[in-house]
From TrEMBL:
Bias (Basic and acidic residues) ranges: 413-424
Lineage start: Eukaryota, Fungi, Dikarya, Ascomycota, Pezizomycotina
Record region (Disordered): 413-432, 453-561
GO BP terms in the entry: cell surface receptor signaling pathway
GO annotation, cellular component aspect: membrane
Membrane topology: Multi-pass membrane protein
Full protein name: G-protein coupled receptors family 2 profile 2 domain-containing protein
Composition-biased stretches (Pro residues): 514-523
Signal peptide: none
Superkingdom classification of source: Eukaryota
Domain named G-protein coupled receptors family 2 profile: residues: 53-217
Length: 561
């Protein structure tokens, strides 16, 4: 066969000149005479499209590189940065991973620059070209993953809005099993029963054989379910909004009455509309990315299936391309003069370019819709704190309690004489201020009232400091509330905010469910010591005697000395 002569008119080549290597079914040949089959040179796109087609493919690949960088940035941010900076969610993370795989189907051919053709008339396949197999596998797996994760995202949103189902751990495991399990099964079936090869462009695509059954129909079924669920959710939102416009009932959102918002039957239309509006405000980015990706996948599937069926029809019935092949023969291989004849046989270049760009730009959409400015700030904080992580900065004296307890003399703000004291003694100076009078001042000075007391002088101290009776007819100053407030120390003390625990006592009555009291109401008593009011002297010690009411003091002259 190597010594045979090419009997076909240019630019066609005789099939007999080549062996059976490469993807033989990808040849576009026509039998022009008995025993003579002429084939179009490889690749076919160089003859059916203008020269700008290759440039358009390279542009789509470089856009895919930018999209891949965006996906990598999102994934690293979700993995490394804290959740308050990223608001990460497994639905977003897995969807970004699937789009990353799909972009790699365009990036790998750009980096490897594989040869599309096995020989002059035969395209390469995954058996004869490794980059072809890898890029085709990534493209199919990423497409399957994108469809499944937008389907699961729309299903999650539908359950939350329409059925008030709180998606939890069970839905997460179900999503992981279906979101990655079905794409794995799909890629295995596609590679085993169909395979990939260079169909158009430098990226390998699935072959025609069995492609409808093992890839396109199942993928389009899930894409259709996604669209149906999404529009069903939109329809429910519109219904709730219209019902809220006709609802004139009073809202209980701001009242103190109990509202059972966990039940659809007990919710008013306005309450349902508020809940739906809050969910949409939180999930509108996810809704947008679902619509974008499912539209890209559906558009790519329809265009590629149409292109595949058209080429296959030409291969089976070469008479449909007689005008185009005759033009190429007459023009001695000048394709530019025959592009108008090739138009009905292939998908027009703007449509193909739009599909390739839409697939490669998904990473940019993810960054715009799922990314946050707080991610950039988080990376800035992380990169700025790592070089200074081992350096100790100067802080105020009471900022780090652990270091202060270890060595109180490590700060210049502390003197050596305070090294034996506690933290409160070291931090707070022993100074008497008008705001915080010391306890020692009152422990050494015995304030007495001219009323009452023994020995004529009286034993009554200042009512603001008295709680318990003390020997000598007076009342002792109030005891300290914590272990720092002892009689041996002076100065302002740090309050013990954590020493006592606040307890809640349920009321005996409730207006929502009134109950009769179980016991008679307690007798209301008043003790002067509990309110720090001036204590009344005993009747026998009263200077007013028993004739003035028996209590030693007139009610209207209680504060008179």
């Amino acid at each position: 066969m190597a010594n045979a002569t090419n009997l076909c008119p240019p630019p066609f080549l005789a099939e007999a000149l080549f062996d059976d290597g490469g993807f033989v079914d990808g040849r576009l040949c026509q039998e022009v005479a008995k025993g003579l089959s002429c084939c179009l040179p490889c690749p076919m796109t160089d003859w059916a499209y203008p020269d700008e087609f290759n440039t358009l493919g390279e542009v789509a690949q470089w856009v895919a590189v930018a999209g891949t960088a965006c996906c990598v940035f999102l994934l690293l941010s979700w993995i490394i940065l804290p959740v308050e900076k990223t608001s990460r969610h497994y639905l977003s993370l897995c969807l970004t991973t699937a789009v990353l795989f799909m972009n790699l189907g365009f990036v790998i051919p750009l980096a490897a620059q594989p040869d599309e053709c096995y020989d002059a008339i035969t395209p390469n396949s995954m058996q004869t070209n490794s980059p072809c197999g890898v890029s085709g596998a990534f493209l199919i797996f990423g497409g399957w993953g994108g469809v499944m994760w937008v389907f699961l995202r729309s299903l999650s949103l539908h359950l939350q809005i329409c059925w008030q189902v709180v998606v939890g751990r069970n839905f997460m495991w179900f999503s992981q099993a279906t979101g990655w399990g079905i794409p794995i099964i799909g890629i295995i079936m596609a590679l085993v029963f169909s395979g990939v090869s260079f169909r158009f462009g430098s990226t390998c695509h699935i072959n025609h054989e069995n492609s409808l059954a093992d890839l396109w129909i199942p993928m389009l079924i899930f894409a259709g379910l996604t669209i149906f669920i999404q529009f069903a959710t939109f329809g429910y939102c519109i219904k709730v909004y219209l019902a809220s416009l006709a609802d004139n009932s009073a809202s209980t959102e701001n009242s103190n009455l109990p509202s059972y918002t966990n039940s659809i039957r007990t919710m008013t239309p306005k309450q349902a509309y508020r809940r739906v509006r809050r969910v949409i405000q939180l999930q509108w980015r996810g809704i947008a990315i679902v619509l974008i990706i499912v539209t890209d996948v559906v558009l790519f599937s329809v265009v590629f299936v149409f292109q595949d069926n058209t080429v296959e029809a030409v291969r089976r019935d070469p008479s449909t391309a007689v005008e185009w092949t005759a033009c190429l023969m007459m023009m001695a291989g000048d394709k530019n003069k025959c592009l108008d004849k090739a138009g009905p046989l292939v998908v027009d270049m703007p449509t193909v370019g739009a599909v390739l760009l839409l697939l490669s730009i998904n990473g940019l959409w993810l960054l715009l819709l799922l990314g946050r400015w707080s991610m950039v700030m988080g990376w800035r904080d992380l990169l700025m704190t790592v070089p200074h992580r081992n350096k100790r900065e100067f802080v105020s004296v009471d900022a780090r309690m652990d270091d202060l307890k270890k060595d109180t003399r490590s700060y210049e703000m502390l003197s050596r004489e305070n090294s034996g004291k506690t933290m409160d003694d070291s931090v707070t100076p022993s100074a008497v201020t008008p705001i915080s009078p010391t306890y020692n001042a009152y422990s050494t000075y015995n304030m007495r009232s001219p009323i009452g007391g023994s020995g004529g002088g009286g034993g009554y101290r200042s009512p603001s400091l008295s709680r318990n009776n003390a020997p000598g007819g007076g009342t002792a100053s109030p005891g300290p509330r914590n272990h720092h407030d002892t009689g041996t120390h002076s100065g302002r003390r740090t309050p013990d905010y954590f020493g006592s625990t606040a307890r809640y006592h349920a009321p005996t009555r409730s207006f929502s469910s009134p109950r009769p009291p179980q016991s008679p109401p307690p007798t209301v008593t008043w003790d002067a010591r509990d309110t720090y009011a001036r204590a009344s002297p005993l009747p026998e010690e009263s200077p007013y005697g028993q004739g003035q009411g028996g209590y030693g003091q007139q009610p209207l002259g209680m504060n008179r000395i």
